[in-house]
Task: structure prediction
Amino acid sequence: MRSVSPEYSPVNGKTYSLFGKSDSTSGYYEEIRMLADKILVLNPDRRDLIDNIRKFSSKKRTLKKYLEIKDSSNLMAGILNLIDPHLKKYTENTDEHLRTLPFSKLWDRRLATTREQYHLYMLEIELTNRLLVSEFLKADKKIALMPYCLQDFSVKCKSEKNAFDYQCKHCSAKCFQNHASTILNTNHIEPYIWMGGDMKQLAKYTAMERRSFGVLGIACIPELTWGMRNCCKNNIPVVGIPLNANRCVRWFGEFFPNSIDLTELERLVTSKS
Ligand code: SF4
Result:
């Protein structure tokens, strides 16, 4: 277990925050698990459910309309109406962000993610974790890709390039990369700060050595969802933990300190299911 934990105070994102109105993210994780449990009772085929969510989540206008439909025979309308009241407290800033997003950036599907899409992505991440965590944990070579923006910006980062990409040198007790790296190393997952390492090439080399390969992603919700989908397309077992908020230069034009729920990371990598 971790000896010292970094300060865990609420952070607000450009569009979402997993703290909602609470001083902890445990409420978010309890809620997303409860929602996934309920939805799986009615739709037990996880793979089929994930495929449907992926297909429908691209139809922004239809998703909005579905929130008006109370027809329980419509799968996506039922899911959206179930999850929206629980998850909307985590995405309160999204509408304002979309109102002020310049026309030239509307093509960027990450930046232009709608509230309904965020809610479906949250569910998709949870369902994908459940579907693939055993296969991921069994992989011979497991890597974790962490974003640069999770580091402690109050110190000069001492991370160094090592094999695939940069690795943390544990210089700051306040740094989330430091604590996440320790949890990952303990569980035989190689932690990297992703600065451009070629994951497809690494997967190819690992396959040539006849070893299986798995990826754990940490990123903001839209980025993580698309990254996980990409891994799935390439038959790489993938799991993910969302950043607690979206606070990097892409969203704000500058970096603000960010965090992840380390308890949830530990729970995921020690998962038995
Ligand atoms: S603890 Fe690691 S990631 Fe954080 S600033 Fe130091 S070297 Fe960089």
Summary: The longest helix spans residues 115-138. Residues 151-152, 155, 157-159, 168-172, 175, 177-178 surround iron/sulfur cluster (CB under 6 Å). The longest strand covers residues 213-219. The chain has one domain: 26-269.
